[in-house]
Amino acid sequence: MNDENELTFETALAELEQIVAKLEAGEMTLEESLTLFERGQQLTDYCNNLLDNASLRVEQLTADGEIVDVSDMA
After folding, report:
1. Who's near 43: CB < 8 A, 6+ residues apart?
2. Taking a C-beta distance cutoff of 8 angstroms, is the pair 51, 70 a contact?
3. Counted domains in the chain
4. Contact, 46 vs 4, CB < 8 A?
5. How many CB atoms are located within 10 Å of the residue 3 CB?
6. Which listed residue, 6, 35, 36, 48, has the most CB atoms within 10 A of its CB?
7. Residue 42's closest CA among 19, 25, 23, 22?
8. In this predicted structure, what is the pLDDT of residue 34?
9. Average pLDDT estimate for 24-31
10. Could you tell me if 18 and 10 are in contact, meaning their C-beta atoms sit under 8 angstroms apart?
11. Is the residue at 14 inside a domain?
12. String of b and e for 11-49 (b: at least 16 CB within 10 Å)?
């Protein structure tokens, strides 16, 4: 499996989505499911960390220190 440090957010999220689909299908052994679940937890933590860092960067870049609602930028 991929080292998280080499993954982009989008790649990690895509892998996480594949894991969820496999787990929902329920066609694996218990051990395979546990291994995938553990990988999913790692990817979830990694994605959350990336999102937290991105949020902090946005907060630091705004003039008044408030988080910008990106939906207003569209």
Report:
1. 4, 12, 13, 15, 16, 19
2. no
3. 1
4. yes
5. 6
6. 36
7. 19
8. 97
9. 96
10. no
11. yes
12. ebbebbeebeeeeeeeeeeeeeeeebeebbeebeebbee
Q: Tokens representing 31? A: 């051990």
User: Mean pLDDT over residues 44-62, rounded?
Assistant: 90
Q: What is the mean pLDDT of residues 37-52?
A: 97
> Residue 35 belongs to what domain range?
10-63
Q: Considering the domain boundaries, does residue 38 fall inside one?
A: yes
Q: Decide if pLDDT at 69 tops 60.
A: yes
Tell me the two tokens of residue 51: 């999102």
Determine, yes or no, domain membership for 55.
yes
Residues 6+ apart with CB under 8 A from 23: 33, 36, 37, 40
Q: Global pTM?
A: 0.73
